[in-house]
Amino acid sequence: MVKITLDIDGMACGMCEAHINDAVRKAFAVKKVSSSYTKKKTEILAESPLDSEKLKAVIESTGYTVRSIHSEPYVKKGFSLFRK
I need a labelling partner for 62 at 20 to 30 A (CA). Which of 10, 16, 43, 49 fits? Predict the structure, then answer.
């Protein structure tokens, strides 16, 4: 799994977040996508890395500006009652 974090300018409300999330879901097969206009960030979880140029183009086609894209491996945190 890969976690992709994007810094995005131009989001001003919850509908802006929804526009970005919908555009990403339509263009890519992702596990999860969530945006925050207050943090100016979008986080995407995917099985494999996404084409960053295509990702940038998809988001900018909705009218927002992508400032940066950062990818890192994602490891799901397990739940344990016995963790110390």
Answer: 49
Q: What digits encode the pLDDT tens for the residues 14-31? A: 999 999 999 999 999 999
Instruction: Determine phi and psi for 9, rounding to 5 degrees.
Output: -100, 145
* Long-range CB contact pairs, 67-72, < 8 A, 24+: 67/6, 67/7, 67/8, 67/9, 67/40, 68/6, 68/7, 69/4, 69/5, 69/6, 70/4, 70/5, 70/6, 71/2, 71/3, 71/4, 71/5, 72/2, 72/3, 72/5
End-to-end Cα distance, the chain: 26
Distances (CA, A) of 33 to 75, 81, 82: 16, 28, 31
Using the Cα atoms of residue 41, residue 26, residue 51 and residue 71 in order, give the sign of their dihedral.
Answer: positive
Tokens 């207050």, residue located? 38
